[in-house]
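Hey, resending since the last one bounced:
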Amino acid sequence: MEDIAKRSTISLGKSRMLSSRKVAIASVIGTTVEWYDLYIFATASALVLNKVFFPNFVPLIGTLLAFGTFASAYVARMLGAALFGHFGDRIGRKSMLLFSLMLMGAATFAIGLLPDYNAIGIWAPILLLILRVTQGLALGGEWGGAVLMAVEHAPQDKRGLYGSWVQIGVPAGTLLANLAFLVVTYSVSPEALTSWGWRIPFLASILLVVVGFYIRLNISETPAFTAAQKEAATEVKIPFIDLMRRSWKTVVLGGVATMSTGSSFNLIIAFGLSYGTKSLSFSQNAILSIILISCFACLFLLPFFGWLSDKFGRRPVILVGILAEAVIAFPFFWLMDTGSYWGALIAYLLMMSAFAANYGPIATFLSELFGTKVRYSGLSVSYMLAGLLGSATTPVVTTWLLSLTGRGSSVAWFMIVTAALSGVALVLLAETVKRNIISNGDV
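The structure tokens again:
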């Protein structure tokens, strides 16, 4: 009988492990689709959208307007975080993931069909803004749900690793987005790229959405939410209000602690692409290839740092990443300004490594800060606040600093300031690696 019980326990453990891995894989595929949709817009903003939707402005102003439209999604992400977080905490993680994926896919596909400024005038940038805001709403709800599906299914001693899998969606989606544009720029002339070629990556996204939707349709709800549903007496009527009433300091500190991840990544992806092609005379294909190589390396760095956070704690690993971002800020531009392809590649790999140490464990860390009843809302709002503070401001501020000083290295100070703020906020938060996330209490 003891042997049978042992075999049954081992079999159950293996079954749960396989289920956790299946959910983690489903989460990373879904977030890859979402971030692909988001970052093809970032890439297009740096390359062509200023010409297509803001042609009557000088190049710098047109680029700023394109990046401003890019940044608008981050405001919408805050609303999406609160809205999807409410329903994710009330009716479940899975249903919100499916809806957000469909919403993102529809908005991205519609951008690919949008007439340009020459065809419909001022309505072109207005409609572009509306669709970009819709993308933001979708991502505001998607990321938190994907993280919770992975983390709440994961074994306690592997939550950092499983949470970092979801983070792979960012470099994977960016890699696919830049690969799509690299293929298009190689295949068509610059005139054709501006005329119609830029639309192809947006329209192709519908294929990824279909795959992601099918995979997510076949995963189960998380054990933590299922357990919370059974406790009707402790049900939270409006999770966002309860969250902000009890844990607003944790939400704000979590957002500021995460802020530098957005600054460093957008420095590489959005500003770096624009700076490299417009100020340093790198070809578009050269910078795109550097971004591809860096994102590929990040696919392996993120789970490595997530695994390290299970061994040594979340805060030490994240803090190392934040400090590295600050230290590398000036060398990043010194290497870029050499005009050497290999110098730029080293700069990108260094900053991407610092970003990975910071970003890999942060999803799990944020999710562990909150109780089950408000976890979707707390995680999502903190992360989207970080995006608003860091990611949304980076392209606009960095482009403005470059125009003001004429020196790319001036942007390094922006990176150092955001890293310093994130480091202070992180130190003010408690370590979470040993926390029981099945508990329904609030921080």
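The first helix runs from residue 2 to 47.

Sorry for the duplicate.
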